[in-house]
Amino acid sequence: MSSDSIGPPTTPPLPDTPPTDAVEGVEEARPQWLVVTSGEAVFGIPVAQVREVVRPGGVRLVPGAPPLQAGIVNVRGAIVTVLDLQALRTGERAVTPGSIVLLQYGARPIGLAVDRVLDVRTAAPEDPDGPAGATVLDAVALCARHLHSAEERTR
C-alpha cells in the first residue's frame, strides 16, 4: 500500500462562488417598492418612504377640507393628515380607502389612502428602475405639494 491512499479523502475544489452573505447583500442592495392600487392603476412606492401601513378605520373627515384630503387619523397619539391617492390622481375622491400608507415627510408623517396594498417587490436585476407591473410613484413629493401650512404659503 502506498502512503497516498491512507490520508483523508480529498474533495474537488468548488467553483468560484461568492459567499452566501454576499449574495444576500446583493438582494438587500436592490431597490424595493410597496405596491399599491388606486382605481385600476398599480403604483410602486419606494420602501424608503414608507413608515408603516395602517387600517383606515379611524379616519375622520375634516369639515371644509379640500377633496384631496381624506381626513385625519390618530396614530398612537399623533394626528396625521391623510390624502386620497385617487383624488390626487383624478380629482375624484375614492369611495373608501382600503389602507393608509404612512409616509415620512421630514419629522412629519403623512397618510396616503390607497385602495389596496398588494405586496413589496424587489427590483429585478434586468429592470432596477421599477417594480414589475407597476408605475413608480414618489409619494412623498406628490403629497408634500398639498401639505403646506399658512405660514409656509406666505414664505
The neighbouring-strand order within the major sheet is 3-6-7-5-4
Uncertain residue ranges: 7-15, 150-155
Return the string of H and E elements: HEEEEEHEEEEHH
Helix content: 10-25%
Percentage of β-strand residues: 35-45%
- Class inferred from helices and paired strands: alpha+beta
Q: Gap between N and C termini, in Å? A: 93 Å
Main sheet record = 5 strands, mixed
What spatial form do the alpha-carbon principal axes imply?
Answer: globular
> Care to count the β-strands?
9
User: Average pLDDT, to the nearest integer?
Assistant: 80
Number of helices: 4
Write up what this structure looks like:
- With 155 residues, this protein is of the alpha+beta class.
- 17% of the residues lie in helices and 35% in strands.
- It is built from four helices and nine strands; from the N terminus they run H-E-E-E-E-E-H-E-E-E-E-H-H.
- The strands form two sheets. The protein has a five-stranded mixed sheet with strand order 3-6-7-5-4. Strands 8-1-2-9 form a four-stranded mixed sheet, with no helix packed on it.
- A hairpin with a 2-residue loop joins strand 1 (32-38) and strand 2.
- The longest helix has 10 residues, at 20-29.
- The chain is globular.
